[in-house]
Write a structure and sequence with these properties.
By secondary structure, the protein is α/β, with parallel strands linked by helices. The chain contains 7 helices and 9 strands; from the N terminus they run E-H-E-H-E-E-H-E-H-E-E-H-H-E-H-E.
């Protein structure tokens, strides 16, 4: 089967591992996600994954506990390490070779992110799992995903969500919301939609890196994206003037 993209960056939210739980990692959901990644990796794609931590802790929630934003964001970065290690264990049980790399040095459990080393891991067929975002507060894991995608020379940034693309409005609220098949960077930035962080989209726009927003929780969607099926919403230059 022909691949449309040879090297991809998959942004996996913490909520993707949440399942039916209120917080934490659902073992069944973790296995599901791992199976989808294994299925996609078998196509021969070079795959890097940026993981979020929202299933455990969100830095933006820090003020509710009297914690300053910077400290809260660092706490959120630590949550991404937990998710990265869980995903690594699930993938390696299924036979994949992986490396966890982190933007904040944690030598006991992960390698520091060095982009040349990460590129070498990808060349050797390893799945590279990236955690701790950019390593700096005030930046989302979406932005970290865009940054790492550019550093690793990815062909596309895949934003995995629990909906099948970008809509004109929140489909859970507005029953008349329509899904975009394609949407220009500029149109998205002006739309007021919040599917993806604006800083991340601006960074992709500045470097002409296409983004595909898709539903990971529908079986085969990740494989479909990689092989050129019409899955999700493509964000790119398609509608910019």
């Amino acid at each position: 089967m022909d691949l449309r993209y040879q090297c991809v960056l998959l942004k996996l939210s913490g909520e993707a591992l949440l399942g039916s739980q209120e917080a934490g990692i659902d073992p069944k959901r973790l296995e599901w996600v791992a199976d989808e990644i294994v299925d996609a990796h078998c196509l021969g794609v070079e795959l890097a994954i940026v993981v979020g931590g929202g299933n455990i802790y969100r830095g933006k929630s820090a003020k509710d506990f009297g914690i300053d934003r910077s400290s809260g964001d660092y706490m959120g970065m630590m949550a991404t390490v937990i998710n990265a290690l869980a995903l690594q264990a699930a993938l390696e049980r299924k036979g994949l070779e992986t490396r966890v790399m982190t933007a904040i040095p944690i030598q006991k459990v992960a390698e520091p992110f060095i982009h040349r080393r990460a590129l070498r891991h990808l060349e050797k067929g390893r799945v590279v799992i990236l955690c701790c975002g950019t390593g700096s507060p005030y930046f989302t894991t979406d932005t970290a995903g865009a940054l790492r995608a550019l550093e690793l020379k990815a062909d596309v940034f895949l934003k995995a969500t629990n909906v099948d693309g970008v809509y004109t409005a929140d489909p859970a609220v507005d029953g008349d919301a329509k899904r975009y098949e394609r949407l220009g960077y500029k149109d998205y930035l002006l739309s007021g939609l919040s599917v993806m962080d604006l800083t991340a989209v601006s960074l992709c726009r500045a470097n002409n890196l296409p983004i595909i927003v898709f539903n990971l929780l529908e079986k085969g969607n990740l494989r479909g994206v990689l092989t050129g099926a019409k899955v999700g919403t493509l964000l790119g230059e398609v509608q910019d003037a």
